[in-house]
Every structure is written in structure tokens, then in C-alpha cells.
Specification:
single chain; about 250 residues; mainly alpha; two-stranded antiparallel sheet; about 70% helix; elongated
Length: about 250
């Protein structure tokens, strides 16, 4: 028996009936609307966005030249240390970037101490590093005492406010290795790292608030979901009308 033409081979892209052709065209149009809604908005964002630095990055730029030339004042060292801590508080930093930031922070803390106290600072940082490597619980008394001692010591030196959470993780980022100077890798890489984490692309679409949300968040998280449901409903309506038109209703 010849089954080479049995009528069961249906192709979406090569429909053979009026109903199949109409169905294909409806699906294509709905997919185009969905694609334009998603990718068109993203393209629009890229076209109109502009790099916008956080205030911390502006502060970093204002002191970096003197820092790199080892000619910074105490106030500039404080600004520099706080700006590196602002980036260290972010969660997506790579180990290599963290090492650069740690060296920058540690050196600023080292330089803010009087010459006669710098050796003692290095000794205490090494001791704290040893404690951290040995404990299994952050509630360890020796760990807590050492950490709080650094917090109390550097709060007035760095001029942190009582509500500035950066002082809480400053002790965790102090590293004894290379603390006496900015390493060559730090001088080379730090400006790029700071720009990467402190300069963001913004536009009126990201700044504008809609129903309490940034518009770009509302659009992608809420509107596109509603649109998808709406397109599904529209497909059902179109198919019902098509079936009625071609007398295919049950």
C-alpha cells in the first residue's frame, strides 16, 4: 500500500489549507509583537541610556591622582578608603578585584596611622587574620573582640557616622600583605574596577517611577507578563472567529 501521500504530514511553515494559513499568520504576528515588546524596549534603553556615576565614584576620582602619586592628605585618604569600602560591600566582586580593593583599603588605613603605630597595626592585622583562619564560628569570643577593636579604632580615624555600616566590614577587608604601599596591580586596575561597579547606565526610562516602581522594572517584570497573557487571549479570540468564518465550530 502506498502511504507516501496520506495527508498526515502537516507543516506550520507550508500550510495547505485556508485555516492552517490563517493560523500561521496569526501566530507569526503575535510572535513579532512579543519580540518587539521585549527586544525593542532593550534596544531603546541602550540607545538613550547614558553613564551615570554614583557620588562615591565622583569622590574617588577627585582624590585618585594624589593617591596614586603618594601625595594625598589625610582627608583624601579617608575619602579613598571609604570609596573602596563602598565597592567591597557589593556581592558580585571577583577574587582578583577584591584583592586590589583590599590592598587599596589597607594601604589607606596604614597611612592614616602615625608612623610609630604602623608596625603595631600590621601585627594586629596579622593576628586577626590568624584568628579568622582558625575559627569555625563567627561568634568566637576572640574573633568578636578583635573585630570590634578595629571598628572602634577606625571609626574616628575614617570619620564614619554611627549609622555607616561600612565600618562593620572594614576589619574583614584589612590585609597585612603589601599594606605598606599600593601594589602595581592596584594602581593599574583600581580605576577600572571602581568605574565598573560605581557607574551605571541610566535614562528617563530607568529614572521614571510608575505605580511606585522604576518604569523599566515594571515594564519587564509586570507589563510583559500581562502582555503575554493578553496575546494568548487574543490568539484564542482570533482562532474562534476564524473557525466561525470557515464553519469549523463544533
Amino acid at each position: 500500500m502506498d502511504n507516501s501521500s496520506n495527508g498526515y504530514h502537516i507543516s506550520f511553515f507550508r500550510p495547505t489549507t485556508a485555516h492552517a494559513k490563517a493560523n500561521r499568520n496569526i501566530v507569526i504576528w503575535l510572535i513579532l509583537i512579543w519580540v518587539i515588546a521585549i527586544f525593542g524596549f532593550q534596544i531603546l534603553l541602550r540607545v538613550i541610556e547614558k553613564p551615570t556615576p554614583e557620588p562615591v565614584f565622583v569622590e574617588f576620582q577627585s582624590v585618585w591622582s594624589n593617591i596614586a602619586q603618594s601625595n594625598a592628605s589625610a582627608e583624601e585618604l579617608r575619602t579613598f578608603g571609604k570609596s573602596t569600602l563602598s565597592v567591597l560591600g557589593k556581592i558580585a566582586i571577583s577574587d582578583k578585584e577584591k584583592a586590589v580593593l583590599d590592598n587599596a583599603l589597607s594601604n589607606s588605613a596604614y597611612q592614616l596611622k602615625p608612623d610609630s603605630l604602623r608596625s603595631d597595626l600590621v601585627f594586629r592585622i596579622k593576628n586577626f587574620e590568624s584568628i579568622k583562619s582558625e575559627i569555625n564560628n563567627i561568634n568566637d569570643p576572640a574573633y568578636i573582640i578583635a573585630k570590634r577593636a578595629f571598628e572602634a579604632e577606625f571609626m574616628p580615624i575614617m570619620m564614619f557616622s554611627n549609622t555607616d555600616v561600612r565600618v562593620k566590614f572594614l576589619p574583614l577587608e584589612l590585609k597585612s600583605e603589601g599594606i605598606e604601599s599600593l601594589q602595581a596591580e592596584t594602581i593599574k586596575s583600581l580605576p577600572g574596577i571602581m568605574q565598573k561597579y560605581l557607574v551605571h547606565n541610566q535614562s528617563f526610562l530607568t529614572d521614571f517611577k510608575f505605580l511606585g516602581f522604576p518604569f523599566h522594572y515594571f515594564y519587564t517584570a509586570v507589563f510583559l507578563l500581562i502582555l503575554f497573557i493578553g496575546l494568548c487571549w487574543l490568539y484564542c479570540v482570533k482562532i474562534d472567529r476564524l473557525n466561525t468564518k470557515l464553519n469549523l465550530n463544533d
